[in-house]
Design goal:
- By secondary structure, the protein is of the alpha+beta class.
- The protein is globular, with a radius of gyration of 18 Å.
- It has a single domain (3-146), classed as NADH Oxidase (3-Layer(aba) Sandwich).
- It has helices at residues 3-9, 23-34, 53-61, 87-104, 117-124, 155-158, and strands at 46-50, 74-80, 108-112, 131-139.
- It has a 4-stranded antiparallel beta sheet.
- Bound molecules: flavin mononucleotide.
Amino acid sequence: MNTRECIATKLDIREFSSDEVSTNSIKEILESARKTGSGLNTQHWRFILVREKDNLKKLSDSSTSGQWIIGANFAIIILTDPKYSFHLLDAGRLIQNMQLSAWDEGIGSGIYTGVIPDQMRKHFNLPSNLNISAVLGFGYPKNRIKGNTKNRKSIEDISSIESYGRSIKEIL
Ligand SMILES: Cc1cc2nc3c(=O)[nH]c(=O)nc-3n(C[C@H](O)[C@H](O)[C@H](O)COP(=O)(O)O)c2cc1C
């Protein structure tokens, strides 16, 4: 799949089949995170791979908007260092790289940010200086994805040309 096709077809997946994702694929997804560029090349991010069912249940129990994680084949907790003003921008970049990298080989993924931090910190031994920026769940999609079902605004709705509010329609 080329990059544009990958971006155009990728959806957030929250229902997964019981098929196992290989350790090699997991390594490749982590590799895609590792290779992402960060502000000042600080690489302040840290990742925790969660594969055991009991721990996926703990993640689900300590989430306010990602209880579906219990059905994922594995999860990755993303920690970033809030002492850098750009830490969430870095998180977004690496998350997208991981999700696209997975999608490229047919592995679906979803993200959630709603967590109960104290519960998560305790259970996963998370250092207090790092921010819990997101949790990603991965697995083969339960349902076949057909067509482009993205619900998005048009380019015209979200873009201007030369100055804010000037219609970009002329080049579309
Ligand atoms: C910053 C961010 C936070 C998100 N938080 C959650 C969340 O807490 N729970 C959830 O199920 N999905 C969450 N999502 C997923 C979005 O709902 C999803 O990306 C959006 O609906 C578009 O999905 P689609 O690409 O499948 O159309 C989050 C996405 C982003 C980028």
